[in-house]
Design brief:
- The structure is a single chain.
- The protein is of the alpha/beta class and about 850 residues long.
- It folds into three domains: about 120 residues, Sandwich (Immunoglobulin-like); about 240 residues, Immunoglobulin-like, CATH 2.60.40.10; about 350 residues, Alpha-Beta Barrel (TIM Barrel).
- The protein contains nine helices and 47 strands.
- The longest helix has 24 residues.
- It is globular.
- About 45% of the residues are buried.
Length: about 850
């Protein structure tokens, strides 16, 4: 065989892509040798007309009598600053028995976010759901004088043992009759988000009448509110029709303080999705992310403006910021956080504001001026992350050119004496770190506040998980298969709202690798085990709008898309979750019901946004298959499991007319137990995590072993099922990758996902980028000689940042260069 050697820099592929379409272009924002330039002083804007207010009575029934020294308050929350960071507590007075109340004046048409707290000497407890989870918040739509009666299930740290009922419903567009996804539904302190069918389910509510509110995350529908009565052990049906909101144009015009850094990006932080609110509990108690906020434009008169379409009637809470809702956000002259309120009128309007100050207290601003390594990938953005009591969400720094980045921190420094900070790439602090402060538990660098301005000039000596150097790719004669061959990359089945801005770059990188398919892995989360609840968890799972945007971007790059929905197990491993599950007949009924809803949601996503395939199954469903086991004992799956799976596949075909693939885990000898219903799917997506040798095996030995597995196990299996078969490879960049059994320290094997970000590093596993590349090359060489293999997919791709870490992601690694050579040649696009 003739071999040609190609050399390429490890990040060349990424560099070429990002230079064409990077998100963080470098330009000069400010020259620090000059004094800060502020806007031309302007008269104060007209005083806004005060909003009409209504008296609202909050009445709550407690689970038990208060002890001496305890009080109960209603806590009105601020999601723009952070739920725990700017709340206002109002004491409640005893009414009768366990009932307490308070009357508050609240602007009409407000949507209030609130919860109850139990205050005792030196401590407080947040009200909790029957699942012993803190109540995030309740919702109340104030349309006039009203009274709301709530029931507290329990307090954090105190188990709930009372009766429970549920609310179930569907939300439809009142004008079109179509279901509405991404609507937040809240009642009794429990929240859910509607799926593609508009369905929601509120589990574990105490008996009584609860105030139910349906709230569109982007305000595109008018808020719905009504009482819903819940009885023990019963489900209350609540059908809802939402009226679409009229959209109007709002022009925000703001005058900034004179000491505002000229050219610094000014953002509008707000309570709607399009204003940066993720509706999630993010790091440090925040809910907003700077990258998701709209950026204002400087006007010739020195003011800043933003023209944006907003829904008429919506309650907008907002503030101006040079950071996010907490850091570098506006304050008033007394040092308090400013949160403005606008009830959007029915016609286009202009809103004029003045930011009094960015500072709080006497502490002077701190300038962070950092030089980063020359090998920082082009298109990356450097972020700074602060730690006043815990690590908070990172803030994008301001590019100065020549690998220099700055950020001027104004506040809130009044609440700090000293605090930690660190630098990272692409908002992935804890993963894409400075080597001096790497890992999720790093303490960071330390800075002290001062009455005089501070200029901190420093350098990042190196980035974690970036090695530089070059890759040698050996060229072989690749047998072209044509465009029908699947040359694909599967994204890591994780999500965080900070990933969203980096998906365009990731997809461009995958396209530049020569792939013709990308496999998206949207998720829901098992939030309860018994009773079973599988639902989108904001902050951990992509919303409908997030997943839709990613799919649309992939299709715009002419990538074929397969949607592979994968659940999350937040507190247990997959194996432990199955062990602890009741697995009795009623639980299994719920399991199949919930999994069907999960598949329907993603089938609708795939159908509405032009995906070519939907992937069912996966390693985690094995106990639910016919004859399923848990720890080698029967799982208790219903005897008619095969009929249930066939019916489920038929049901999905009614919603999605593309291909249906079955994700089948493969280890040596496992194909003998493949389910019989594979004859109902279109292709087998074989999840390969099988050994091809020992840690010391040569590439030739690994190629021979991969060929043996293909010939003796996979080939005969494919001939039996008579379906196209694609190999989906999970290969960590770790010493011993060829064994498919990296030691867990307890005599067993680590799951390959244990090495994925943002999981902390496992020091006992040694980094070995060459080992990953060698395993890939061995399998590709074996596939090259076997034309019946219909495709090769690389699993575990980490979208937000290039990391040469131990994970299976090939993003920025030598294995990516190898795929860059093989993929287009398999497709016949390159000689």
């Amino acid at each position: 065989m003739n071999a040609t050697r190609f050399s390429s820099r490890k990040v060349l592929l990424i560099s070429l892509t990002l230079l064409l379409g990077g998100l963080a272009c470098t330009f000069s924002l400010v020259e620090w040798t000059l004094p800060p330039v502020g806007p031309t002083p302007l008269p104060a804007p007209p005083t806004p007309t005060p909003l009409p207010v209504a008296d609202v009575t909050f009445e709550v029934t407690l689970p038990a009598a208060l002890l001496p020294g305890e009080t109960v308050v209603v806590s009105v929350l601020d999601e723009v600053t952070g739920l725990a960071l700017n709340a206002v507590n109002y004491p409640l007075e005893p009414k009768e028995g366990l009932t307490y109340s308070a009357v508050l004046p609240i602007p009409v048409n407000s949507v209030v976010k609130y919860r109850y707290l139990l205050i005792s000497s030196g401590s407080q407890a947040i009200e909790a759901t029957s699942a012993n989870q803190p109540v995030r918040y309740r919702l109340l739509h104030v349309v006039g004088p009203t009274a709301v009666h709530d029931v507290v299930s329990t307090w954090t740290g105190r188990p709930y043992a009372g009766p429970m009922g549920s609310i179930q419903g569907q939300i439809l567009n009142a004008e079109t009759g179509l279901p509405v996804p991404d609507v937040l539904v809240a009642a009794g302190g429990v929240q859910d988000i509607t799926d593609a069918s508009g369905l929601f389910f509120l589990e574990g509510l105490p008996p009584g009448t609860h105030n139910l509110v349906a709230y569109a995350l982007d305000g595109s529908f008018q808020t719905f509110q009504q009482g819903a009565t819940v009885a023990a052990d019963l489900i209350t049906p609540v059908p809802i029709s939402l009226q679409p909101a009229q959209m109007v144009n709002v022009l925000f015009v703001v005058t900034l303080p004179k000491n505002t850094v000229s050219g610094a990006p000014v953002r509008l932080a707000g309570n709607l999705f399009q204003l940066g609110n993720t509706f999630a509990d993010l790091r440090g108690g925040l809910s907003t992310i700077a990258d998701r906020m709209p950026v204002l434009t400087p006007a010739p008169d020195g003011r800043y403006t933003l023209s944006i379409s907003l829904p008429a009637g919506a309650d907008i809470r907002y503030k101006y910021t040079l950071g996010d809702g907490f850091w570098n956000a506006e304050h008033n002259a007394r040092g308090a956080f400013v949160v403005r309120q606008l009830i959007v009128p029915a016609q286009n309007t202009v809103v004029e504001d003045v930011v009094e100050t960015w500072q709080a207290g006497p502490s002077a601003p701190i300038l962070f001026d950092v030089t980063v390594p020359a090998d920082t990938p082009p298109g990356d953005t450097v972020y700074i992350q602060f730690n006043p009591y815990a690590w908070m969400e990172p803030i994008p720094m301001w590019p100065m050119g020549n690998n220099r980045w700055t950020y001027k921190l104004y506040g809130p420094l009044n609440i700090l004496g000293s605090f930690g900070y660190r630098y990272c790439r692409n908002a992935q602090c804890g993963s894409a770190d400075d080597t001096a402060t790497m890992g999720p538990h790093a303490g960071g660098r330390l800075v002290n506040t001062s009455l005089t301005p501070e200029n901190i000039r420093e350098a990042v000596s190196a980035w974690a998980w970036l090695q530089g150097g070059s890759t040698s790719v050996v060229g072989f004669a690749v047998n072209a298969r044509g465009e029908g061959f699947v040359s694909g990359v599967e994204l890591q089945p994780s999500f965080h709202p900070t990933w969203s801005p980096w998906f365009p770059q990731a997809l461009q990188n995958i396209q530049a690798m020569g792939a013709n398919w990308t496999i998206l892995t949207p998720s829901w989360t098992f939030t309860r085990l018994s009773p079973l609840v599988l639902t989108p968890q904001m902050g951990d799972d992509p919303l409908w709008v997030d997943a839709s945007q990613t799919l649309d971007r992939a299709r715009a790059l002419n990538l074929n898309v397969a949607v592979f929905p994968t659940p999350h197990f937040p507190t247990l491993t997959m194996e432990e979750w199955w062990r602890q599950a009741p697995r009795d007949p009623s639980w299994w009924e719920k399991w199949f019901e919930q999994y069907r809803a999960f598949l329907r949601h993603h089938a609708d996503l795939a159908a509405q946004h032009g995906a070519q395939a939907l992937v069912l199954g996966g390693e985690w469903v094995s106990p639910a298959l016919p004859g399923g086991t848990v720890d080698d004992t029967p799982s208790g799956v219903p005897e008619d499991a095969e009929a249930r799976w066939r019916e489920m596949i038929a049901d999905i075909r009614k919603r999605f007319n593309g291909q249906i693939w079955w994700a089948l885990p493969y280890t040596v000898g496992s194909l003998e137990n493949a389910p019989a219903f594979l004859d109902d799917v279109d292709a087998v997506y074989l999840l390969w995590y099988a050994p091809v040798g020992e840690a010391s095996s040569t590439k030739e030995e690994m190629t021979a072993e991969a060929g043996r597995l293909l010939d003796e196990e996979i080939g005969p299996f494919r001939a039996t099922v008579e379906k196209p078969l694609f190999l989906a490879l999970a290969v960590p960049s770790a010493r011993g990758a060829a064994t498919a059994c990296l030691p867990d320290g307890e005599g067993g094997c680590l799951h390959w996902m244990a090495l994925s970000r943002p999981n902390p590093d496992i020091p006992s596993i040694a980094l070995d980028l060459q080992a990953q590349m060698d395993v890939y090359e061995a399998i590709l060489l074996a596939v090259n000689e076997r034309p019946w293999v219909g495709g090769v997919v690389s699993r575990g791709y980490y979208p937000p940042a290039l990391l040469q870490d131990k994970s299976a992601s090939v993003h920025g690694k030598p294995a990516a260069d190898l795929l860059w050579y093989w993929f287009p040649r398999f497709l016949g696009r390159a000689p």
